[in-house]
Amino acid sequence: METQVKGGRSDELNLWFHEPTKPINLMNPIVLAYIGDAVYEVLVRQYLISLPNHKPNHLHKQATQFVSAKAQFLILEKWRPHLSEAEADVVRRGRNAKSGTMPKNADPAHYKQATSLECLVGYLYYGKQVGRLRELMAIAFGEMDDTPVEAGINEGES
After folding, report:
1. Which CA distances in Å does 35 have to 3, 87, 97, 145, 148?
2. pLDDT for position 15
3. Is 37 a catalytic residue?
4. What pTM, to 2 d.p., does this model score?
5. What is the model's pLDDT at position 96?
6. Where are the domains of the chain?
7. How far apart are CA 30 and CA 28, in angstroms?
8. Among the listed residues 94, 103, 142, 147, the one whose alpha carbon sits nearest the alpha carbon of residue 121
9. Which residues contact 62 (CB under 8 A, 6 or more apart)?
10. Residue, of 6 and 128, whose pLDDT is higher
11. What percentage of residues in the chain have a pLDDT greater than 70?
């Protein structure tokens, strides 16, 4: 017999300990990107750990192939054809938000797109759209078209 837990089914991991103080569509995009960055990093790490024969000393190197600004830019490009109008609007809001900081080693255009990806992940996370987040992450990991994003990152690098 399945027991119900507050906020979801018992077979789903419920990580929403604290609800945001305002509706997600009114939240600052940088705040959504802040939580989205953390959620995205956890999802990438879970994916990498799920792969067979992974070596712990290589996990960080593998993770950077998904979490760098360039990687997130490429992933967002893979997501774009699949985004709803509302999701595309969240991405636009994230891209246009003023973060106030820019890493020295990141391309400004890639950094803005990475922030918009993180904004969307935060939006889906706080919107409890777990299924949609899984769909997009499957695209990121190449589970939908057999072209993982790390292949695109490694192209052109020597």
Report:
1. 29, 16, 15, 28, 24
2. 62
3. yes
4. 0.80
5. 92
6. 26-148
7. 5
8. 94
9. 48, 54, 150
10. 128
11. 80
Identified catalytic residue from 37, 89, 107, 146? 37
Per residue in 37-53, pLDDT (tens digit) is 999 999 999 999 998 87
Report the 10 Å Cβ neighbour count for 10.
10
Q: What is the DSSP letter of 51?
A: S
Residue 14 has what pLDDT?
60
Query: CA 117 to CA 104: how far, in whole Å?
Result: 20
d(CA 82, CA 88) in angstroms, rounded, equals 9
CA distance 92 to 78: 16
How many residues make up the chain in this entry? Answer: 158
Neighbour count for residue 28 (Cβ, 10 Å): 12
Element (H, E) at 97: none
From 120, 119, 129, 133, select the one nearest 33 (Cα to Cα): 119
Residue linked to tokens 């999802």: 43
The CATH superfamily of 26-148 is Ribonuclease III domain (1.10.1520.10)
Six-digit token pair at 86? 């509302």
8 Å CB contact between 129 and 83: no
β-pair partners for 8: 5
Residue-wise pLDDT tens digits, 103-127: 778 888 999 999 999 999 999 999 9
